[in-house]
Write a structure and sequence with these properties.
With 230 residues, this protein is mostly helical. The chain is built from ten helices and five strands; from the N terminus they run αααββααβααββααα. The protein folds into two domains: 71 residues, Arc Repressor Mutant, subunit A, CATH 1.10.10; 116 residues, Winged helix-like DNA-binding domain superfamily/Winged helix DNA-binding domain (Arc Repressor Mutant, subunit A), CATH 1.10.10.10. 46% of the residues lie in helices and 11% in strands. The longest helix has 17 residues.
């Protein structure tokens, strides 16, 4: 291999190693002006193959439109043993429920989230906005013009998704007999603190799946993203 090309490849590997966020091709082009995006992409693919072929402790994955170096899931048990006292703060159940609804139905308004959940969701939506997992995407053309919400790039990073297309399809849940709960509109007036036995439906099963995805990201040892408060 040409020495200069190997130097570029080493530089890319080093950048991916030190970055705590996925690195996009445009960022690499800025520091490697002599390379086209296609060439950079090819070198990243070569690195990916090399890691796989030698069962390396690190892997390079495509997340949220960029590339990130993560620990190999095969080393998860050793990493957990090493970081016995280090645990990742998980999102609360209400936050996961609201996030699941927004992810699958975006753009969606707060009232629609509350109708599905059956409880007031002001607090959880504010929390998700504060954590950068959702954003305001516009306003609904109805009286009062309420905000509409959608997920962010940080959402993809948190759950380790390449794009929203990687979310399990709603049809897949239906085939398994899993549905988004349908609560009565009047229940939207209930408070977030309403005890579970007083609500009309069980928490959304889609949120269960997202909780599994969240746990998977942690147990695989692949969480180099910022921790989030529960």
């Amino acid at each position: 291999m040409d020495e200069q090309v190997q130097n570029y490849k080493s530089a890319i590997e080093a950048i991916l190693f030190v970055s705590e966020k996925p690195v996009v091709l445009d960022q690499l082009k800025e520091v490697l002006p002599g390379l086209e995006a296609s060439k950079i992409n090819g070198l990243i693919r070569e690195l990916q193959d090399e890691y796989v072929n030698r069962s390396a402790g690190m892997v390079i994955v495509e997340i949220a439109g960029g590339f990130q170096m993560l620990s190999n899931s095969q080393a998860a048990s050793y990493i957990r043993e090493f970081y016995k006292t280090k645990t990742k703060e998980k999102l609360s159940r209400p936050a996961l429920e609201s996030l699941a609804i927004i992810a699958y139905k975006q753009p969606v308004g707060r009232a629609e989230v509350e109708i599905i959940r059956g409880v007031n969701s002001d607090g959880t939506i504010a929390h998700l906005l504060n954590k950068g997992l959702i954003k305001i995407t516009g306003r609904k053309e109805v009286p009062g013009r309420p905000f509409l919400y959608g997920t962010t790039k940080e959402f993809l990073e948190y759950f380790g998704l390449k794009s929203l297309d990687d979310l399990p399809k709603i049809e897949e849940f239906n085939q398994l007999g899993v549905d988004m709960p349908k609560a009565e509109p009047s229940l939207a007036q209930e408070s977030e603190s309403t005890p579970p036995e007083e609500t009309a439906s069980e928490p959304t099963s889609v949120a269960d799946q997202m909780q599994v995805q969240e746990a998977s990201q942690e147990s695989s040892g692949q969480s180099r993203v910022a921790d989030l408060d529960a």
